[in-house]
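Structure tokens please, single chain.
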Amino acid sequence: MTKSKTEHRKMKSASRLYAVQALFQMEASGQTVDSVIGEFETFRFGAVYEGDEMQEGDVDTFRGLMEGAVNEQAKIDQMTDRALVAKWPIARIDPTLRALFRAAGAELVAKETPPKVVITEFVQVAEAFFDGGKEPKFVNAVLDHMAREAQPDAF
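Here you go.
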């Protein structure tokens, strides 16, 4: 059965959220990227929690974000540091935001998705984690700066 474009977009969006969760989990637990990818693909994609079915994720998007975030972490963290206020290097920010910036940075560095789509998608992820807080606006500003550095020709 072929997925509709709308369903595929939902799966890609879910994969971005899962990537942030997985990167957070890797940092908190010290697990390897391969073990976390396996856990998420086996137990989280489409799982049912407390009667609610989780969205199925797009495996290729999820793996690409995870591998990109790990393989390009130094570059992404440097881009993030340049986007942050000088007194707030990435090591000092909330670990959820750090995971979000790494996942988004991986997608920006890969240059396969238009920057505006990446920014919009990850601001929505921030809204899921920080409902009603100032973080989504902060994420928007940082990702805009990172996108202009990673893909200057797109602006």
